[in-house]
C-alpha cells in the first residue's frame, strides 16, 4: 500500500537501522499489543497504533482511500489497517470492537480488540498494520522478541505456553560496533544520523501478556509490580536507545544473550524477554 513501509513491514516488531533510514522524514509511531487469556483458553488481543502527523498524512495520501475530507481519509486508512491485522493474528479471530483515539502526544490512531476461542489458534509473527508480511519480498525477519505460537492445557491450574518462533538472521555486518554518536556520524553521515535521532523520538513498540486469574507459577522475566498477572514480552522505547548507540547496535543483533547484554547496559525502560525462551504461566 505504502512504498516507504513495504520495505520495513516484515520487520515491524523491531525496525532495524536500514528500515529506519527508509522511513526518515515520514514521522514516527507508537505501537502496543496486549494478549489476554482466560482459564479456559479463550481471550482477546488489544492492538493499539498511533501515528505522528507527518507519517499519518503521508500514509493517508498514498492509501488511495478516495476520500476528499482529511478526517474521512484517516478513518478509511485506519479501517483498512484494522481489517488487515485480524487475519495475521489467526484465522478464527473476530473483531470485537474498534475505536479511534489520540495518545498523550496528540497523535491520531486506533484501538482494535480481536476475540479468540482458543489461544492455540493465535500466532504473533511480525504483525503489520500495512498488510500480510508474508507478501513482503524483503529477506530476513528482524525481530528480537514478541514472536510466538501458543500452547494451552486446561485444568486447575491451567498452563499457558508461549513458544518462540525462530528468528532469521538480520543479514547486517556483525563487525559494526558504534560506541558513540560520532560513530553513527561516520556510519550514516552527520545529517542523516541527526535525522535518525529525531525520528526515534517517540517510537515505542510494546507487547504484553495478561492472564485472567491468579498466577500460580511462571518463568516470565518481567512481571508487573502493580498487577502480577501482567507480563512484558517486549518494550522498546527507541528514543532511550538513541542515546546509547552501543545498545541500539546490540538490539540489531539476534542471539540468546541479547536480554542479558541489554540488562548489563542498563538502558532505562527497555524490556526484552529472553530470545528462544519458552514462557510458561500456570494460573487459575
Q: What does the secondary structure layout of this molecule look like, with pairings?
A:
Layout: H1 3-6, H2 17-23, E1 29-37, E2 43-51, H3 53-62, H4 70-89, E3 94-102, E4 108-116, E5 123-124, E6 148-153, E7 158-164, H5 181-188, H6 190-200, E8 204-211, E9 215-218, E10 230-237, H7 238-242, H8 245-251, H9 258-265, E11 271-272, E12 279-283
Parallel strand pairs: 1-8
Antiparallel strand pairs: 1-2, 2-4, 3-4, 5-6, 6-7, 7-12, 8-10, 9-12, 10-11
Helix pairs in contact: 3-4, 5-6
Describe the 3D structure.
The strands form two sheets. This protein has a seven-stranded mixed beta sheet with strand order 3-4-2-1-8-10-11. Strands 5-6-7-12-9 form a five-stranded antiparallel beta sheet, with no helix packed on it. It has helices at residues 3-6, 17-23, 53-62, 70-89, 181-188, 190-200, 238-242, 245-251, 258-265; strands spanning 29-37, 43-51, 94-102, 108-116, 123-124, 148-153, 158-164, 204-211, 215-218, 230-237, 271-272, 279-283. Residues 1-25, 136-144 and 170-182 have low confidence and may be disordered. The protein is globular. The relative contact order is 0.17. Strand 6 and strand 7 (158-164) form a beta hairpin. By secondary structure, it is of the alpha+beta class.
Q: What do the pLDDT scores average to? A: 75
Tell the overall outline.
Answer: globular
The total tally of domains equals 1
Strands in their spatial order, largest beta sheet? 3-4-2-1-8-10-11
Helicity, in percent?
25-40%
Structural class: alpha+beta
The main sheet comes to: 7 strands, mixed
Radius of gyration: 19 Å
Give the terminus-to-terminus CA distance.
Answer: 43 Å
Strand content: 25-35%
Order of helices and strands: HHEEHHEEEEEHHEEEHHHEE
Unreliable stretches = 1-25, 136-144, 170-182
Tally of separate helices: 9
How many strands? 12
Amino acid at each position: 500500500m505504502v512504498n516507504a513501509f513495504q520495505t520495513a513491514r516484515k520487520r515491524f516488531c523491531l525496525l532495524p537501522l536500514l528500515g529506519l533510514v527508509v522511513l526518515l522524514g515520514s514521522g514516527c509511531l507508537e505501537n502496543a499489543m496486549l494478549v489476554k487469556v482466560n482459564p479456559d483458553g479463550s481471550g482477546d488481543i488489544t492492538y493499539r497504533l498511533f501515528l505522528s502527523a507527518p507519517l499519518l498524512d503521508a500514509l493517508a495520501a498514498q492509501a488511495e482511500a478516495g476520500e476528499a475530507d482529511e478526517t474521512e481519509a484517516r478513518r478509511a486508512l485506519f479501517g483498512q489497517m484494522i481489517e488487515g491485522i485480524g487475519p495475521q493474528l489467526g484465522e478464527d479471530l473476530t473483531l470485537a470492537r474498534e475505536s479511534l483515539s489520540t495518545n498523550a502526544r496528540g497523535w491520531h490512531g486506533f484501538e482494535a480488540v480481536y476475540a479468540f476461542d482458543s489461544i492455540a489458534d493465535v500466532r504473533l509473527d511480525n504483525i503489520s498494520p500495512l498488510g500480510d508480511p508474508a507478501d513482503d519480498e524483503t529477506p530476513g525477519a528482524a525481530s528480537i522478541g514478541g514472536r510466538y505460537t501458543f500452547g494451552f492445557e486446561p485444568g486447575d491450574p491451567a498452563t499457558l505456553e508461549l513458544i518462540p518462533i525462530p528468528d532469521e538472521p538480520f543479514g547486517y555486518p556483525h563487525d559494526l560496533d558504534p560506541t558513540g554518536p560520532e560513530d553513527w556520524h561516520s556510519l550514516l553521515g552527520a545529517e542523516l544520523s541527526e535525522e535518525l535521532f529525531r525520528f526515534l523520538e517517540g517510537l515505542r513498540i510494546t507487547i504484553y501478556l495478561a492472564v485472567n486469574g491468579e498466577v500460580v507459577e511462571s518463568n516470565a522475566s518481567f512481571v508487573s509490580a502493580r498487577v502480577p498477572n501482567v507480563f512484558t514480552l517486549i518494550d522498546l522505547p527507541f528514543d532511550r536507545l538513541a542515546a546509547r548507540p552501543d545498545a541500539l547496535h546490540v538490539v540489531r543483533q539476534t542471539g540468546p544473550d541479547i536480554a542479558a547484554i541489554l540488562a548489563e547496559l542498563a538502558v532505562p525502560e527497555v524490556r526484552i524477554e529472553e530470545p528462544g525462551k519458552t514462557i510458561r504461566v500456570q494460573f487459575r
